[in-house]
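INFO batch 0412 | record 1 of 1 | parsing
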Amino acid sequence: MRVLIAPDSFKGTVGAAAVAERLAEGWRLARPGDDIRCLPLADGGEGTLDVLPAARRMPVPAVDAIGRPREAYWSLLPGGTAVVELAVACGLPLLREPDPLGASTFGFGRLLRSAACHPGVTRIVAALGGSATTDGGSGALVALGARLSTEGGSAPPLGGGALRHVTGVDLSEIVTPPVDGVVCLADVMSPLLGPAGAAHRFGPQKGAGPGDVVVLEDGLMTWAAVLGGDPDAPGAGAAGGTAFGLVHGWGARLESGSRFVADLVGLQSALCWADLVITGEGRLDEQSWTGKVVGNVVASAECEVALVVGERACELPAGIRLCASLVELAGAAEPAIADPGTWLRVAGRTVAEGVR
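INFO prediction complete | emitting C-alpha cells
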C-alpha cells in the first residue's frame, strides 16, 4: 500500500513534521512493507514556516506582541517568495501572560518590512494565525511606515485598546509591497466586527474579559471607519483583524491558508500517488471542515482517508475509513498531552491494523 501521511500540527503539543514521523513509525510496526511518504501541512497560521521545502531562513531583530526584543525570522523560497509568519514574532504562546489591550502586531510588521526590502523578493506570503493581538493590524502598518494620529495630533500607543482614539492614518510613507504583491493566509472566515468577529469570538482566547471585548470591538469599529474597507468581508477578522489591516492598508489579498500551503508543498501530486492518506490535527470539531488542513485534505483526496486526532468533538463525514483519537487511545487527555509521541505511534499502528 502507498500511504501518504499529511497532518497539521497538534497545536501547543507537537509540530506537523513530528506528528507525521511518529505516525509513520507506528504504521511500520504493523505493515513494514508499505511505501510511506510524509508531507506535513499547515493552515497558513502557526507552524507554516516549518513545513516549507527548500526554504532559507532570514533572521531579523524583532519584538514580541508586548514589545520585548526577540530574534525572529522569515523564510525565502526559490523564485523570490518570502513567507512571513505572524506567530514567530507575535504569537500568543510567546507570552507568559496575555495583554489583550496592549498586544500589537508591530513585531510582525518588522518582519514584513525586512522581507519587502530584501533584494530579490517578488512576493510576500503573510501567514496569519496564532496571534496574541487584536489590533486590526495597526501595529504592523506602523512598522511598515504608516502614521496613526489622535484628535490631538499625537500618535496613539500600540495595541487594540488604543484604537478607539485613532482619528487618522497616513499611508504616504508606507513601504512599497513587492512587485507581485502580498498574500494573507487565513484559516478562519470571521468578519472584523460583531459576535463572530475578532474581538467577540477570539478576544477571550487572548485574555480579554467582557469589558476588554467591548473596548476592543469599539476600537476595531473606529479603525474600520478610519482605514476604510469592508469590515464584514469573510476573513477580515483573522489574527485579531490583521487581515483587515493588511488588505486595506497595504493592498494585500486574502486566501485560504490550508489550500495555499497545500499547493506550495505539492499535496495534489502526492494524493494522486497514494492509496490512502492519513491526516489530522489536535482537536477535530466543526471548524475542521472549513478552512483547516483536515477539511482541505478530505475534500481533495480521491483515495481513501483516515484521521488521527488528539481529540474528537464532532461527527465524521461520509468517506472517512478510520479515525483514531489520542485521548481515546490513552484513556484520558492528560497522558495523551504528556506523551503525544508515544500515542501517535500507537495511533499509527492502530490505523495500519484497521485497514488490513
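INFO post-check: The CA atoms of residues 102 and 159 lie 4 Å apart.
INFO record closed
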